[in-house]
Design goal:
The complex is a heterodimer of chains A (about 250) and B (about 150). Chain A is built from 8 helices and 11 strands. With about 250 residues, chain A is of the alpha+beta class. The chains are: A alpha+beta (about 250), B mainly alpha (about 150).
Chain lengths: ~250, ~150
């Protein structure tokens, strides 16, 4: 190769300009949510309510979530735990979640033991630790209050998986990016409820829109004893549990 | 003027290369980062549309009721009024779009009903539950109960 310095610099300049133009062409189109649909992100602030006194541990939510969101086997965007609190030892409840409760729970009758089911999912934190630790801007709180993952930007470092105090995230085994509950963002932006709420037979789970003054969530929060998980972590969790026992972690 | 730059040609060349490198960095950065990055926060707003664009798998009970009026009406009068159709019949998003493309599952009541109604002390006390062996033996629930109006 006989290149003068001038020729080399000129070639490098051409390469930069042309590759820039080529990349520009591949940019994804944006603004469909804002422009085309009737859905206005600014009008919503999504949350969920869970009534422990209604959960029967059927596992319908776990199955529905897996079908709706193609959740890989062995991973869960939502799951159900069975708690058993023995006597006064509230510090050490026995917790089990066989395969996330996807096949329900084996029937058990222990009349003397306090026991109940706790469905869990992403708490859609308003001040989310997972968002704070993402080094590439791949995970974020959407303008309507849902914690989402941009799987094109995610580098699969797993910081967010470690940061989530609720264990709600996982690294997708084949995509090698972070994956989590999207609160069925593709459904709620079309006016549907989430798959788990749709499939819940007792109405233990309800999707809630805190910005909608007509949403029954306001009455729910006003008249019931409501708690979020790990309030001491100040995550701004938006999954509100009614009648949650203090032993739940 | 000429005197000032005399003997410093190597420095000028170095400066030109440095400027070109900075310009190259800016050009590549401009090309790689979408124009609207940061519109709502430190993320790519296009990903909101990509996530929202997925097709729902569950149609939702309103879609079912818009065709199956008779069953929806019957169900609304019984204790299963608030149970979604797809809670038992499985996801039917494609069926709701084109009913020939997907056939709903007719569940086996011998297996289906007990996923909710088998007695378990962890279930709420007010929820109707039975020990299915004692209650019906080997008889499937559907022999006596109509799941859409389960009261006998």
């Amino acid at each position: 190769m006989d290149l003068s310095r001038r020729e080399l610099l000129a070639a490098a300049g051409r390469f930069i300009v042309l590759s820039g133009a080529a990349l520009e062409a591949f940019e994804s189109p944006t603004g469909a949510l804002a422009a085309d649909s009737k859905y206005k992100m600014a009008d919503h602030w999504w949350a969920m309510t869970i009534d422990i006194e209604k959960c029967i541990g059927s596992g319908n939510c776990v199955r529905a979530c897996a079908l709706e969101n193609e959740v890989p086997e062995g991973f869960f965007r939502t799951w159900v735990e069975r708690y058993e609190v023995n006597g006064e030892d509230r510090e050490h409840p026995q917790v089990e979640s066989p395969e996330g409760g996807i096949h329900g729970f084996p029937a058990r009758n222990k009349p003397g033991v306090k026991s109940f089911f706790v469905p869990k999912l992403c708490n859609q934190c308003a001040h989310s630790p997972c968002v704070q630790v993402c080094p590439v801007g791949a995970t974020y709180v959407s303008p309507d209050g849902v914690v989402l993952v941009d799987q094109q930007y995610c580098v699969g470092c797993g910081y967010c998986v470690q940061a989530c105090p609720y264990g709600c995230r996982y690294l997708h085994p084949t995509k090698h990016v972070a994956d989590k509950c999207t609160l069925c963002y593709h459904r709620i932006t079309k006016g549907l409820t989430t798959a788990c709420c749709e499939a819940c037979p007792t109405g233990a789970r309800r999707l809630a829109d805190l910005k909608n003054p007509k949403d029954p969530v306001h009455e729910f929060l006003r008249v019931n004893a409501v708690q979020v998980l790990k309030p001491e972590m100040a995550t701004g969790a938006k999954v509100f549990y009614k009648d949650l026992d203090g032993s739940v972690r | 003027m000429r005197k000032i730059f005399e003997g410093s040609a190597h420095l000028i060349r170095l400066a030109v290369v440095a400027v070109l490198l900075v310009l190259a960095f800016l050009a590549i950065r401009h090309a790689l980062i979408p124009q609207d990055f940061g519109k709502y926060g430190h993320y790519r707003p296009g990903s909101l549309d990509e996530i929202a664009a997925r097709t729902p798998v569950f149609a939702g009970r309103e879609a079912c009721a818009s065709c199956h009026v008779d069953i929806a009406t019957a169900k609304s009068k019984g204790p299963h009024a608030d149970v979604g159709c797809e809670a038992c019949h499985g996801p039917l998003g494609r069926h709701a779009q084109d009913f020939t493309s997907q056939k709903p599952v007719l569940p086996d009541t011998a297996k289906l009903c007990v996923t909710c109604h088998e007695a378990d002390s962890a279930k709420p006390k007010t929820f109707p539950q039975v020990v299915s062996r004692e209650h019906a033996g080997d008889t499937a629930c559907g022999v006596c109960h109509n799941p859409h109006q389960p009261r006998i």
